[in-house]
Amino acid sequence: MKIAVASATFYYLPFEETLDIISKAGFKYLELDMYWKGGEWEMAQHLKDISPQTVIDLICNKGLEISSIHDGGGVVEKDSTSAIDPMLYEYLSVMKKDIECIVFHPPHKKTNDGENWWSQFKHAYISELSSLNNKYTVCVENIPDFEYYFVPLKSLEDLYEFSLDNKVFVNIDTTHFAQRDIDIIQALDILGDRVKSVHLSDYCKNTSHVFPGEGILDLKHFLRSLLKNKTTVITLECTLDKFHKLSKDELIRRLRTARDYIENAIA
User: Fold this and answer.
1) Is the pTM of this model over 0.85?
2) Residue 213's closest CA among 267, 264, 144?
3) Vertex 242, ends 238 and 246: CA angle to 5°?
4) What is the pLDDT of residues 92-129, one digit of tens each?
5) Residues 210, 200: contact at Cβ < 8 Å?
6) Running DSSP on this structure, what letter comes out for residue 79?
7) DSSP codes, 53-77
């Protein structure tokens, strides 16, 4: 099982500084979160206008390895026929080593006819995932509701069946389940060995993606249960606005503490 850090955690810092923090905190692996902008959101802004080849070279030069790559989009705008960022294929073409998995958000669209849209769109989406899952472990992530957007695969049963029927796997985001009042232990019991990747964070008083041990979730029980499921990657994904006020040394210390929490739980 690989323990990684989501690179977009430090989206507000230059990418090279992000890599330095992750490395000095004692991590070997990172999840590479691609730059993406769509709908009302933007992600991994520190990679904007940097070529995939340059990104991969920077990671290799720092001595880090990519455990997974995250296409953090999923918003289907206007008449788009794809929910996958074309940049993903460029990243995959310049990767120097194999990765454990690719993580996708389910497609979601601002529409008043969501059920009909999804019934038509999902066939093309499944086809795109199938073109990748013969070489990579493809994981579809649970996501929360977004106002005015139709979000498919919200129930545990739908997510499980979609995963099983289409030979893909699941990435559990612990905060996203907490935001929808779904117990993460129950989710893990239902999804079972379909879970191959996790975005790990705690949740507290409507504050999302806080550090493990700082919220209300039973993460120690959850982490121990992952060992039975043969999960391959645990990615620490904590993104708090207050990070902006912390020094580099403090960020490194917080990451080390989080890494120790995970390692002790699964020891």
Assistant:
1) yes
2) 264
3) 95
4) 999 988 898 999 999 999 999 999 999 999 999 999 99
5) no
6) T
7) HHHHHHHHHTT-EEEEEEE---B--
